[in-house]
Amino acid sequence: MRLASRSIPLILFAGFLALPVLAVLASWLPIGHGDATAGDILREMASTVLPTYVWTTLWLSLFVALGAAIVGTGAAAAVTLFDFPGRRAFEWLLLLPLAMPAYVTAYAYTDFLQFSGPLQVGLRSAFGLEGRLLPEVRSLGGAIWVFIFALYPYVYLLARTALGERAAHLMEAARLLGAPLPRRIRAVALPLARPAVAAGVALVLMETLADFGVSSYFGIQTFTTGIYKAWLSMDNRLAAAQLATMLLAVVLALLHLEHRAQKRMRFATGGGRAGSAEAQPVRLQGAHRWAAWAVCAVPVVMGFVAPVCFMLRPLAADWSVLPWERFVEWTWNSVRLGGITALLAVAVALALAFAVRRQPDAVTRGVVQLASIGYAVPGAVIVVGVLLPVGWLQAARPQWGVGALVTATACGIVWAYLVRFCAVALQSVQSGYARIPLNLDASARTLGAGSVALLARVHWPLLRRSTAAAALLVFVDVMKELPATMVLRPFNSDTLAVVAYQLARDERLGEAALPSLALVAVGLVPVILLSRTLRSR
């Protein structure tokens, strides 16, 4: 009885976090509409827009996955297996595109490469040419380019770790059998990194499917843009929910693939002798050195250096036209929402992680997994899932004013943020708990410490760094989140991400550079910390 009473609050809270996802799944049930209506909407979508959404999303995902795998694995192999000038610098420079939201990269390339951009204008003026000289940036090919160089670090990080922990004794055995270096890399090192590459590609695909900014700005008909059109343009919440369900099914399948690949990495990265000659990078000479340098330099330039330079150009041209007063307001809104969500997410993560620590039974672990269900759910799906139960409750009890509470205040958007990013904080806090020995808990209980004293006086001092990292990660994710913020933000509470998207959509790309660069600066903080952690290891 006591066990059940302890689990009830956790179950209720986890249900609150999982409610948006469950509401989307419930859109297929005959609640508030008939089966015939649901079937009619699905058949209508299947005969009109659904094939376009499916094929566009499929081709986009296929080419992004292939490109990110090639770029990320090639860069990881270069800095891990070989030694050349600048290798140490490239180890952390290759992480910089993580600080650049994909939609910001899209704005930067569009401003520079479009028909009226400085590159085509300069070429026409210099060579006396006319018409379009470069392919249209706002296209499926342009989106593939943006996603590849914005998301390849996911593959690079995991592949670099796997290659760094490669089985040195197997490489050495292949060398003793007479296999040349290219064959040893192709037949031994890269197959050992294959699970890591698969896990990284799954993460890349989840980010691609969750994107709204790039697809909407480039006019690409993907599932995410279709969800927003169904909800906001066609005013059909059922169609939006069913599209969101299809997208959710694909994302969950990718998440399952990522988990399987992570498990296989345990067996694929067998240890070798650290002092083995094969564990040391091979020093390159001549043309091979320049080739390795190009493999590492091109992703950094395309994913970070070039977009930043493109955005700095309009700022350097005329600083006086920039909306500095509004910029302070947008920054404050972003920081306020990020700070509130970070504090709440850390508090929730501490409560859930402490519950698992004190009571590691199947019920508690299941509750924690339920609360983490929003980890890989796209923002578009969460928006639909938040608004669906609110709409049902508003129709049933209009006097309660639930709709105004969720859409006119910060409650709705903070709820959506918590659903999406609580798992990020929980993962960091649980990693901190893994480093605290269980005998400390037993000693504290022997001395008469209760649950509150145990958490405050024993666990908290040892979890400060983990909770600080969790708060920072959630804060940065909230600052960059676009789909949920666009729909659920309170009135007159535009954030940096929303303003950057709106200014770019209105072709005011020069003004969009200021909030976009602010988002990049914020995103650099966790990237710098990550690079320092990898170097210390």
Describe this protein's structure.
By secondary structure, the protein is mainly α. It has 23 helices and two strands. A two-stranded parallel sheet has the order 1-2. Helix 1 (2-25) packs across helix 16 (379-396), helix 5 (102-113) crosses helix 13 and helix 7 packs across helix 13 (287-317). The longest helix has 35 residues, at 324-358. It is globular and about 70 Å long. The two termini are 47 Å apart.
Keywords:
mainly alpha, single chain, 1% strand, 23 helices, two-stranded parallel ribbon
Note the total helix count.
Answer: 23
Distance between the termini: 47 Å
Order of helices and strands: HHHEHHHHHHHHHEHHHHHHHHHHH
How many beta strands in the DSSP annotation? 2
Estimated structural class = mainly alpha
Mean pLDDT: 82
Low-confidence stretches: 32-36, 268-278
Strand content: under 5%
Helix content: over 70%
Biggest sheet: strands side by side, in what order? 1-2
Please outline the helices and strands.
Layout: H1 2-25, H2 35-47, H3 50-81, E1 82-83, H4 87-93, H5 102-113, H6 118-127, H7 140-164, H8 168-176, H9 181-210, H10 213-218, H11 223-233, H12 237-268, E2 282-283, H13 287-317, H14 324-358, H15 362-371, H16 379-396, H17 402-407, H18 411-433, H19 438-446, H20 451-480, H21 483-488, H22 496-505, H23 509-536
Helix pairs in contact: 1-15, 1-16, 3-7, 3-9, 3-13, 5-7, 5-13, 5-23, 7-9, 7-13, 8-9, 9-12, 11-12, 12-16, 13-23, 14-18, 14-20, 16-18, 18-20, 20-23, 22-23
Structure at a glance:
The chain is mostly helical and about 525 residues long. It has 23 helices and two strands. The chain has helices spanning about 1-25, 35-45, 50-80, 85-95, 100-115, 120-125, 140-165, 170-175, 180-210, 215-220, 225-235, 235-270, 285-315, 325-360, 360-370, 380-395, 400-405, 410-435, 440-445, 450-480, 485-490, 495-505, 510-535; strands spanning about 80-85, 280-285.
